[in-house]
Design a protein that fits this description.
Layout (H helix, E strand, L loop, with lengths): L2 H12 L4 H6 L4 E2 L10 E2 L20 H5 L4 H24 L35 H16 L10 E5 L13 E2 L3 H8 L1 H8 L5 E4 L3 E2 L2 E2 L4 H10 L4 E3 L7 H4 L7 H10 L9 H11 L5 H17 L19 H14 L1 E5 L12 E5 L7 H4 L12 H9 L4 E5 L19 H9 L3 E7 L27 H11 L5 E6 L7 H6 L2 E4 L7 H9 L32 H4 L17 E11 L2 E10 L5 E11 L10 E10 L4 E8 L6 E2 L5 E2 L4 E7 L5 H7 L4 E6 L2
Parallel strand pairs: 3-5, 4-6, 5-8, 10-11, 10-12, 12-13, 13-14
Antiparallel strand pairs: 1-2, 6-7, 9-14, 15-16, 16-19, 17-18, 17-22, 20-21, 22-23
Length: about 700
């Protein structure tokens, strides 16, 4: 059902409601209206990397890990699986009259905020620091979720609109101040792409203010949506509207807050402000019935588009589709392609026939929490790093293990002395031919304010260091002199300098999902080659960054940084040796493409990512460093040569002026085509520079 038809049906239904009934539908837990045959509906559901918070579901790698695949088609397939499982669960629950929270078809994902500062605890919910990568991955996920059938398969939601990335501890009162140039250049592109190119059904506001206006009641932010042609519905973040009067102090009370939100396009209140105050605002003349009616119409338009009244082609998806064999196999594939090999002195891949005993050590070695990130579902089976290595090796190789230390406490048993498991870890290492040292974080240390357990930072990180307990363990294992593969489970940048100096290989595993342990084992022992790329910069130090509260992009991310990265955006090693050997720019009418030849000069089949960066050479408005403007995942057999074509977006030839407008301000462009960005650190790490393709426009 197209939107116009759905809207007409919605208008006819809403016209039969009283103003009180219309208002009742504007909260996330909308009640039934029996006299009109309207069932209850709960708008709040989560599906960031699998259907979340409602029992069994396939648990994919966290969003930051999916971003590291640089593979939009794969992420579209993930979205399709998510909506298939969501439909299966909805069909089954609705048949039982269960219309509770987390059981509807409106998913509050993806998170397309820009991960501008490595301290932000929620950065692992995003697709990284680059607006182009975020746009492409976000569009693909939305397209997978919503489908291309006659009925919308499920509704996706772009959040948090639009300038939101910490600090978590002050998000309820914070004003994120961004220039017009930074808004257009960095903070808005992904939202614009999801609205204009993917037709995302919903947009969610943020907790904070943006340039003085609360994001869930902002005339300026709504003007962007209107300019982009957004026709879906807008939802507040949860209990964000009460922040208007309790923390932002832009209104006097709940009545004024409800009025400010709905009068500026907020249709659904996740929270209680609308249910408590919307009718009071109406009765006091602060809100018109027409405004309430329009919000209700937008919401029922979405419900009609989902086929919730007239039925759909998805109504017969059986519950057995949830976490089926094919979905489990696919999440394992996504996990393999998400992991990023940061260092390898030749120790990987390991020939299991040449080792007799391996040690698997660390607090994340056998941790399910280190697999799942936040906003996750519940898998029926999990495979930790330890279990994955054990399962892969069977009884052919002895596997010893030790927790080594607690995740952040200084002992694992409260009656024990400090560092009570380090001796055991050293013993395991001393008796092993090779050690897999599994460290990092989980959602209890980095996450959302109120959810994460590190109350001192409200889910954010205060630095880039591992907790002290793990640093003590890492140094103790280094002292054994054994070969070590360092496996980091985290959703963000952590300092790798010690590991790079002391260990043989480093694998960034992210939070790889329920099948992550098996996926890691397949990479470590050479069944597959790693092919993930960093979607964020790993910095040498926080000192080079502006204050966390500063939303200016100066000095942030690979596009604006002035120093060398520890590990650059777009970097990741493989077991093969894919190189770009030829790149030709072709202009065909309004279409600009790069024809690229790639060759795997190595001895192992591998995936890799061809990346194109651009710099306008003769404009003072261009961002300081070359910016990603095209990429394509490739799989190249050893010795094979492939030809691919990558279309370049129109904005590759534009810059943003101080008024936030995309303009043509130069004719001289340099494109860089390779498997990394063209920075000096990437060259130091790979020994290969991208090809340079100069383009001068007439």
């Amino acid at each position: 059902m197209n939107r116009a038809e759905a809207r007409e049906k919605a208008k006819a239904l809403v016209a039969q409601m009283t103003v009180e009934e219309k208002a009742s539908q504007l909260k996330y837990d909308s009640p039934s209206i029996p006299r009109l045959g309207v069932p209850a509906y709960n708008w709040w559901n989560e599906a960031l990397h699998g259907v979340a918070r409602s029992g069994q579901a396939t648990v994919f790698p966290q969003a930051i890990g999916m971003a590291a695949t640089f593979d939009p088609e794969m992420i579209k397939a993930v979205g399709d699986i998510v909506s298939t499982e969501g439909r299966a669960k909805y069909n089954a629950h609705a048949a039982h009259g269960d219309r509770d929270i987390y059981k509807g078809l409106t998913y509050w994902a993806p998170n397309v905020n820009i991960f501008r500062d490595p301290r932000w605890g929620r950065g692992h919910e995003t697709y990284g620091e680059d607006p182009f990568l975020t746009s492409e991955m976000g569009k693909a996920f939305v397209q997978g979720i919503q489908g291309d059938g006659e009925t919308m398969k499920a509704a996706a939601c772009a959040k948090h609109f639009a300038v939101h990335s910490g600090p978590e501890g002050i998000r309820h009162e914070f004003d994120a101040v961004a220039s017009k140039k930074d808004m257009a250049e960095t903070y808005l592109p992904a939202f614009e792409a999801l609205v204009k190119d993917a037709g995302v059904e919903a947009v969610m506001g943020a907790y904070n203010r943006v340039n003085g206006e609360p994001a869930c009641g902002s005339p300026k932010l709504q003007s962007y949506l209107k300019d982009w042609g957004f026709e879906g519905h807008f939802v507040s973040d949860c209990w964000a509207i009460k922040d208007f009067h309790e923390h932002h102090m832009v209104t006097k009370n709940g009545t004024e807050s409800a009025a400010l939100a709905i009068n500026n396009g907020c249709d659904v209140n996740c929270g209680s402000t609308y249910s408590l105050y919307i009718m009071k605002a109406y009765n006091e003349g602060l809100v018109s019935e027409e405004t309430i009616t329009e919000a209700a119409v937008r919401l029922f338009t979405a419900r009609y588009m989902l086929g919730l009244f007239d039925g759909s082609e998805y109504d017969n998806i059986p519950y057995t589709a949830v976490e089926c064999k094919e979905h489990i196999a696919f999440t394992q594939k996504v996990a393999r392609e998400s992991m990023v090999l940061l260092k390898n002195n030749g120790i990987l891949p390991i020939d299991k026939s040449k080792v007799k005993t391996v040690g698997v050590i660390g607090p994340n070695a056998n941790s399910r929490a280190a697999l799942i990130g936040n906003y996750h579902g519940t898998a029926s089976r999990y495979c930790t790093l330890l279990e994955g290595i054990q399962g892969y090796l069977g009884w052919d190789v002895r596997v010893l293990s030790s927790e080594g230390c607690a995740l952040f406490q200084d002992r694992t048993e409260h009656l024990a002395v400090k560092n009570d498991r380090i001796a055991e870890a050293q013993i395991v290492a001393e008796n092993s031919d090779i050690v897999f040292l599994c460290v990092g974080l989980d959602e209890t240390l980095e996450g959302e304010e109120g959810d994460a357990g590190n109350a001192y930072a409200s889910g954010d990180k205060i630095d880039l260091q591992l907790p002290q307990s793990q640093r003590d363990l890492v140094e103790a294992i280094a002292a054994t002199g054994k070969p070590v593969v360092y496996i980091m489970s985290s959703g963000s940048d952590l300092d790798m300098s010690y590991a790079n100096e002391h260990f043989d290989a480093i694998l960034q595993a992210w939070y790889p999902g329920a099948a992550g342990g098996r996926a890691a084992a397949e990479l470590l022992f050479g069944e597959y080659s790693p092919c993930g790329k960093l979607p964020i910069t790993f910095y040498e130090t926080l000192e080079e960054l502006p204050a966390f509260e500063d939303y200016s992009m100066k000095g942030r991310t690979y596009r604006f940084m002035e120093n060398k990265a520890q590990y650059p955006f777009g970097f990741g090693l493989t077991y093969g040796d894919v190189q770009v050997t030829k790149a030709d720019f072709v202009k065909d009418g309004d279409k600009c493409v790069m024809n690229v030849t790639v060759e795997n000069k190595g001895k192992m089949n591998t995936g890799d990512v061809v990346q194109i960066y651009v710099k306008c050479q003769d404009s003072d408005l261009a961002v300081p460093n070359p910016s990603l403007c095209g990429f394509k995942k490739v799989f190249v057999e050893a010795g094979e040569t492939q030809q691919i074509q990558i279309q370049l977006p129109e904005r590759a030839f534009m810059v943003v002026n101080e008024d936030g407008q995309y303009v043509i301000d130069g004719k001289d462009f340099m494109f860089y085509v390779g498997c990394s960005q063209p920075d000096e650190k990437s060259f130091e790490l790979t020994g290969v520079r991208p090809l340079q393709v100069p383009v001068v426009l007439a």
